[in-house]
Structures are given as C-alpha cells and as structure tokens.
Write a structure and sequence with these properties.
The structure holds two protein chains of two kinds. By secondary structure, chain A is mainly alpha-helical. In chain A, 72% of the residues lie in helices and 0% in strands. In chain A, helix 5 crosses helix 7 and helix 6 runs antiparallel to helix 7. In chain B, 77% of the residues lie in helices and 0% in strands. Classes of the chains: A mainly alpha, B mainly alpha.
C-alpha cells in the first residue's frame, strides 16, 4: 500500500488548520500527491484541466445570479421578510424547520429546485431574518446572531436535500449503488434501498427539529426576542 | 454542442462580463487582478471543451496563483439603498417572488424532457427566463440585470471556483490511489472481525473518505469494494439491500462537515455573505455527529 500518496491529505488538513488560503493549498496538495506516486507534471495538469471542465455542472447556479440580483434590487428580500411577519408564531428556528420539511419532501419526490442561490439567499434567509426585530441594529451590535440565523437556513437546505434524496426510488445515489453492487455480483433493488433510506431520513428530521428548537431557545436568551413569546 | 454546453457558454460569457466590469472599475483596489481571475474562469467555463486539457490545467493553476496573493476582491458595486427597495416593494409586491419561482418550475419541467442532464439544463434555462421576466416585470433594463449579477458574483468571489477545483483534486487523489489506502488503513486500525467492528469500519471509511473527497459518490465505490463487501457483506452476512444505502447516507454525514464539499458548505456561506466561511459547517456538525452514530445503530439492527 502506497501510504506516501496520503501526503496530499496531510497538506490539506495542515494548510487549512493554520489558515492558508484553501485554493492554493488544495492545488499544492494535489500536485504533491500526484508527484510522489510518480505522475508527470504534464499529466497532472491534464487531469486538473479535464476534471475542472467536467465539474462545470457545479457552476450552473451562477447563471441564476443576474436574475436573483436584479429581483433583490426590486424588493424581493423585503417582500419575503414582510410575508413572514404576517405569521405571528414565526420564529427563526421554525421558519428554518418549515423550509427543511419543504426541501425534504421535494427531495423525496425527486425534485431538484435550485437550492441555496434560488431559495435560501433570496427567500428563506430573509424570512428567518425577518422574524428578528431590530436586526439592523444587531448586525452592528452582535453580528454573530445574524450569522447563525443565516447559516441555519443554509444547513436546513443541506439536511433536506441529503437525507431525503435517496428515499426517491430513482435517486442518482441509489442508481450508483446498484451499479457498484452489480459490478461486484450482488443484485439490489432500488425500491428496497429507497425504503431503507427512510430511517436515516426520519432521524435527520428529528435531529433538525431538535437543533432548530435549541437554536430558538438560544436566540431568545441572547437577544430576549425571536423565541416563543407565549 | 449539447444543450448543457450552450448553458456553459452563457455562464462563461456572464463571467467574462464580470471580468470586464472589474477591469473597468476605477474604485476597485484590486481591479486588474480580480478581472484577470474572472477572465481566466470565464474562458474555461465558456470554451473549456474546445481547449486542450493541459491549457485548461494551466488556467486553473493561474486561478490558484491569483488566490494565493489574496488578489480576488469585490469591486465597488453596491446594493441599492433600503429606501429604494422599500419603494419597489410597495410598487411591485409579490411580483419579484413569482419571477424567482420560474427557476424551479423550469428545473422541474425539464426533468420531463428526455435530454442528458435535463435538470441542470432546466436550471440554466429557468435562470435566463427569470432574467427576462425580471426585466419585464420591473421595467428595468439588461445593463442592470448584468451589473446586479456582477454584484453577487463579486461577493461570492473566489469561493465560486472551489467546487470544480476540489473535483480536480479528487481526480488526482483517484489517480494517485488514495482510496484503497484509506480503506486499508481503516480496516487495519479497527477490529473488523465482529459485526459491530465491521460496521464501524464501513461507516467510518465512508465518512472519512467523503470528508477527504468532498463527495460520497466517489467514496462509495472505493470503500464498498475495500471494506463493505469483503468485511461486512461476505464475512458478517449483512443484507446488501439494507447496508449499502445506509453506508451511502453515513457518507453524507461526512459531506456535512467538510470544506471539500464546497458547493454545499462554502459557496452558501459566500452567497449569504457570512464573515465566517466555515459557519455553515460549524452548525451542521451538531447534527452530523449524532446522525452518524444513529447510522451505526440502524445498520446494526436492520441489516442482519
């Protein structure tokens, strides 16, 4: 076993731990791992260029930025924030949990909707922020509070996406599992695997519920508002 | 060109516009270097498939070098005032929200069409349609569409390239054979000759390799071949229909805590303009750790 190839992993971990810029750190790590196992530099450049171009899929969201930016200019975030004020019982944690449920259900139905740029930044985050009075003042006085509110909405998107998607029978993840298992000589059923993805999905739902509730409690203690007033 | 390649061309041209706007930005202290960064990225996005791999590789190295000097900074494009947005809210009400919802409608609608990568093409087409709808609904113009897009693009900054960049690192790790080494290491360190030990090795291997690669799909084949099949399914008799999907979501617990999954963890921090780029991960760890332990219990009770 070629343990020396782990040098790249070590470089990434150490580099990030001491606070180097992630992009050059990752590049050096990749080059190191490749060079120590004897891959020539030209081949490494080809692998990097090829993989970067192949992974453009992850940048399709960039095309949504002009529309999102222009709609923000014309009051999109303010509308989302105002909408949530009509709901008396809304708290940051509850808004976040309701979005989790929506995202989880959409995943289970196999819907891919655009995630962080389309829903979280322009709609869900402003709604969660909208439940907090004096947020303008907080941004300067205690910015950590608003950072956490926003981060929670981003996390709920990931929870719902990750732990709902494999409950959908035609999920890409299940098809990949089927391919790998068939290659190794095992027959597996998509429907059975979808069913046994449900327990983890429910566990995630319960944990998300607990986390967002604890967060509401924390918010209430921290700023005396934003929690349940009753 | 495939439909998706037309979408990439549109993205690349938008990024090249952002490069131009950075070059022309007189109040931008890092205008030229930021512009060069976006220009190099725009070229690989728009024309990557026509350029030799080695040139794309050099462009990617150039991106990293510019980052190393912290030379990618946001320009002077500012959000309009809160007063203006409040006025627009009174004038337009729910209409901007309806325009945004066109994006998911198209992303979903395209899944019904039989073309490769249909949801991604749908997302791209939806974005363009939403942009046109935004112009019509707000009586604003194309220039404003581009400059508002550039405003968010600047605020996301270098974090935008992390996802494909880490994909490239993953490709090198694969070529260097890191996966089998991890599988070997985990199965040596943990006592894999009993059911619990074998399950823990499989789940830890999935999470650990996902943390390194940023991608549970990449981890699954390597760890299942190296640990899952020989040590858990063959040696202990686990049901593959049950253990395999649980191993996959055990890997997703790793996705929640790694900066290598930049598209899920770092780009959203940038989109939300958080000061702490690791804030999302710090919140997700609180769920990821108990959820991972629950996975081990679920495997133990369901798969045998």
């Amino acid at each position: 076993m070629d343990y020396i190839s782990l040098i790249g992993v070590v470089i990434v971990v150490l580099g990030l731990a001491v606070g180097f810029h992630p992009v050059p750190t990752v590049l050096i790590a990749g080059l190191a791992s490749g060079l120590v196992v004897g891959l020539p530099i030209i081949e490494l450049l080809e692998i990097i260029g090829n993989a970067f171009v192949a992974n453009r899929t992850m940048l399709v969201f960039v095309l949504t930025l002009p529309a999102i930016g222009m709609l923000e200019k014309h009051g999109l975030k303010e509308y989302a924030g105002e909408l949530i004020l009509r709901i008396q019982a809304a708290t940051a944690g509850r808004v976040t949990f309701v979005y989790f449920l929506f995202r989880w259900a959409a995943s289970i139905l196999g819907l891919r909707l655009g995630g962080h740029p389309v829903f979280v930044r322009p709609i869900v985050s402003p709604m969660a922020e909208g439940t907090i009075e004096d947020r303008e003042e907080l941004e300067t006085k205690d910015p950590y509070v608003m950072e956490r509110v926003k981060a929670m909405t981003a996390a709920s998107e990931n929870y719902g996406n990750f732990f709902g998607q494999n409950i959908f029978v035609a999920a890409a993840g299940l098809i990949l599992i089927q391919g790998v298992m068939e290659g190794a000589g095992y027959e597996v059923e998509l429907a059975t695997m979808a069913l046994y993805s449900l327990p983890a999905g429910i566990a995630c739902l319960i944990l998300a519920f607990i986390q967002f509730n604890i967060f509401d409690g924390w918010l209430k203690r921290r700023i005396g508002k934003g929690g349940d007033d009753s | 060109m495939s439909a998706l390649e037309w979408i990439y061309l549109a993205i690349g041209l938008f990024i090249i516009y952002a490069a131009y706007a950075n070059f022309m930005d007189k109040e931008h202290s890092r205008g030229p270097s930021s512009g060069l960064f976006w220009l190099a990225l725009g070229i690989t996005l728009a024309f990557g498939q026509f350029i030799p791999d080695v040139i794309n590789g050099l462009l990617v190295v150039l991106l990293a070098v510019i980052c190393a000097f912290n030379a990618v900074q946001r320009g002077s494009a500012k959000e309009v005032s809160l007063d203006y947005r409040q006025k627009e809210l009174k004038r337009l009400g729910s209409r901007p929200l309806l325009a945004v919802l066109l994006i998911p409608v198209f992303a979903f609608g395209f899944t019904l069409i039989d073309i490769p990568q249909a949801p991604l093409v749908g997302l791209g087409v939806g974005a363009i349609v939403a942009g046109i709808a935004a112009i019509l609904l707000t009586n604003d113009n194309f220039g404003s569409l581009m400059s508002e897009g550039r405003r968010i693009n600047d605020s996301v900054g270098w974090a935008m390239i992390l996802p494909p960049f880490l994909g490239a690192l993953g490709a090198i790790f694969n070529a260097a054979g890191v996966g089998p080494v991890i599988a070997d290491l985990v199965s040596r360190v943990l006592p894999v000759d009993n059911i619990l030990g074998a399950i823990v090795a499989y789940a830890v291997g999935m999470a650990l390799f996902t943390i390194i690669m940023g991608n549970a799909f990449a981890a699954f084949a390597v760890i299942t071949t190296g640990i899952g099949i020989p040590l858990v399914i063959v040696a202990q008799g686990a049901n593959p229909n049950i253990i395999a999907p649980m191993a996959m979501t055990a890997g997703y617990c790793g996705t929640l805590v790694t900066i290598m999954a930049a598209n899920f963890n770092i780009v959203p921090s940038a989109l939300l303009e958080l000061k702490d780029k690791y804030r999302v991960i710090k919140e997700q760890i609180q769920v990821a750790i108990p959820l991972f332990l629950i996975h081990i219990a679920l495997m133990y009770f369901f798969a045998f």
